[in-house]
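ok trying again, last paste got cut off:
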Amino acid sequence: MTAHQPVFDVEALRRQFPILHQEVHGRPLIYLDNAATTQKPQAVIDAIDRYYAHDNANVHRGVHSLSERATAAMEQARESVRSFLNAGEVAEVIFTRGTTEAINLVAHGFAREVLRPGDEVLITALEHHANIVPWQQACAASGATLKVADIDDNGEVVLADFEAKLSERTRIAAFAHVSNALGTINPIEKMIALARAAGAAVLIDGAQAVAHTPVDVQALDCDFYALSGHKLYGPTGIGVLYGRHEWLERLPVYQTGGDMIREVSFDKSVFAPLPHKFEAGTPHIAGVIGLGAAIEWLRGVDWPALIAHEDRLLARATERAAGLPGMTIVGRAQRKAGVLSFMLDGVHPHDIGTFLDFEGIAIRAGHHCAMPVMTRFNVPATARASFAAYNTLAEVDRLFEALDSVRRTFA
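nice, full thing came through this time. structure:
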């Protein structure tokens, strides 16, 4: 191996994922739907099982041993997230149901506290619906205007257009770190710097990034960073909003109820300090603990080796695509994460997905909650194979053998 391709023991890694060792329709499972959700290592499964088997209790309000253990485990997970993102303090780590709720929390707060008629919100044409619709609603509620920066034929944000659409009226720029539909890795450092120069706050949708590259929110200098646990080898139904302390203090509460209050009377309520101000009700305790376990597991992986391995997977898939007649890749950004979005002449993406399922291969087919992206490329949908650390080059080759069968069958 060369210095830029460190050794990565994928077989040892795969042994930690029980779900991968099964057959689907009599064929060994090849799971290539990782942009939708990743599988879970045994360490995460064990952490969740341990909580329910030994520590199941509500947090923060109990004085008995189970509650104290559950609270300690939850808050240790918060510290794991803080360290993983290099947030300045644990108070800047808010647990949510996922990226979607995290973005909605910020959009709701901006609609109430920040945005006024004549203000602007800037997103890009590359966004997931979860980073479009909340801002549409925030603008509708506040009288602000939603601006959209263009993408080019490669699926890359046109930086000149992004810069041109920033103005002194831009209150926040919100954009993806990595596109879920195309795999484009945005130049977020440049985009953040441009937004900062215009005086705008910055939110990053990091759902597709955090399992594939280290993230340092302080180095990025973003105000908000949102992620989902289930795309990070963790449980579903749990996510994180990182928020700069001063912004979280300024934004109004998102939901109200138990555990986010300091004092309640029939005249008024006083809310709890950060981070609990934004965590109303009983949290997804098992999900938080599972997310903490996923992060600690991922921190034990050799990041340079992981990144190099995933790059090899995408390079092999791109090379094989070039040799398959009738196959068109949608999204050819120079910098991509492990996503191959494609069309096959004469075959609907849903038919591709169904055919591959009978070969034991799981991919995604549809608009990927990015309908404006599909419109930009004039396609109703794409088939999408997305890779994770546990995928192998042999699985990529098997995918293309099956795609060739799809092509010949429908021809």
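cool. The chain is about 40% helix and 15% strand. The longest helix spans residues 65-85.
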